[in-house]
Amino acid sequence: MNIFSSHLKRNEILSYSKILDFSKCQKIAINIHRNHAFEPLESVITPFLHYSGLKADFTLSSYDDSLNFDKIIESDLEIIWLDISRYKSDIAEYLESRLEFLRQTSKAPILAILMDIADSKTLQNTRDFSNIVEHITHCEILCISQILQERESKQILDELKSSITGTRLSNIACLHLAQILGLRLIPSLLLPSLKAIVLDLDNTLYYGILGEDGAKSLTLTQEHKALQEKILTYKKQGFLLALASKNEEQDAKAMFELRSDFPLQWSDFDYVQVNWNPKSENLAHIAQYFNIGLDSILFIDDNPAEIENVKPTGVKTILATEPSEVLRILELFPQMRKTRINKEDSLRANDIAANAKRKELENLSQEEYFKNLQIELEFHLDDRANMVRIHELLNKTNQFIANYTRPTQEQVKSWLDSQNYVIVSIAMRDKLSDSGNIAIIVGRSFERDMGLSAEKGEIDSEKCAEARDFHNEKCKNGGSVEKKCKGAKEGITHGGLGKEVSLEIIDIVVSCRALGRRLESLMLYKAFALMSENLGVDSQRIIVHYQKGERNKPFLQTLAHLSGEDMVALESKQSIEIAQHAVDMRGLRVVVR
């Protein structure tokens, strides 16, 4: 089955669903809050989610125009599925209030999909609903007239069968909505974006073969031009661009110099592998240069054999049969839709290009290296203005990551609001480039029982946590020696010799762009010190929670250095104590905000 087909058939989809292997798919739970039927989509969405690496368990509400959200269960995504023709007046204000309520109830991302087509000739509501959710974290509203804008409204509706199907949507509309939800929308809310696009040249970006036809004879159709313009749009969104083509590099470079009619130019590519080596080898070099995983790359090539040869590497692929088809697939392709563009997206390419110059200084001493590059580290504590970037880094980082918490934006917000937690974000810049926010460390305070009793007392557990699970309603204080915890900001203190306030690290992530600059250990020790001070921590022993993942060897190597444990011993554990100590920051400019 062609998962990207524009001519979907329900029977074919249902048959294909029966032979799928979900062993490597991430399981997700999705709540559907609705006032018309979602079942026509649920029954066919499985293959599209499977292609995205997801397997969904849907929980459907009863039909409810009032959106009471009865019996909400924990989920990874909340979908509001409304036919707004069922309301007599503009529902914007009421919808806003219900979304605010749901946001307070659930920490999962929220996607509201509104059936806004009243009949075959008119729209129910042409207003832009997006402004009503600007203040609601991780919440998005889309109208079906927008999602299916290439189709006429008469193709979208089937009023005659609505009493049977439970929805005014036609079978064709349901199939394509399932495709768009499963490939494009749901992955964009739950999975990190891909990081790089790698392009072939001949018969991909134009018609013709450079080595045989010559640069002047290559044909740039309007469709090829549109494809190149689309690739440039992705570059502006922060995707890295690279070439992997079997040609002579000097010929390829001369072609771009000659063909000023090409929207894409040589300088737009962040790395080039134009040679006669196997494409799989070139893709490996590109991934290494960008310091990303092969599974973060989308490779577009017109040669079916090349596509099949690189698939075992984990690279995502599109077979470039026609430029118009590539454009259509790109609009659907999982992890190519970004819900937000941040500062770091625009900085990424320059930062990676500067790495080559940084490598030239590797033989310098640490202090000389820092001074020469004029490296500045900026530490922020509980930086609410950068909540989106904090969430993004915690969810997209794969190499230098400790505990794979993968929190929602609402979970990040709850950490920022909690008195027991602190989040340190670290920005970095040097004379070559501004890297932006490159590291996040999440920690919390907890009381360690030292084996001695304490006098009775009661404290609100929201301001003081006795145990790691933070579910106790009370804790005890008293004694002759006063020990401050986070609650001390509210005038609460702990005394007694039986307890000490300790620091527990929930997760650590460092962007792959920042690795290899001799900063990992220094950043972590400095962050731990700032967190301990902020939380009123007494203990010099820090508990770090972690997991062994598929690709987090860089983190485990740093943890081995910090703890003195060997890699084999670390891989058998899930938490470890390390000692806090001062570090040599000479040569660095350090700013704390």
From TrEMBL:
| Family annotation (SUPFAM superfamilies) | HAD-like
**Record key words, sorted:** Hydrolase
Q: Which domain of life is it from?
A: Bacteria
Q: Name one GO molecular function term.
A: hydrolase activity
Q: Which InterPro entries match?
A: FkbH_domain (IPR010037), HAD-like_sf (IPR036412), HAD_sf (IPR023214), HAD_SF_ppase_IIIC (IPR010033)
This one is known as HAD family hydrolase
List the source organism.
Helicobacter didelphidarum
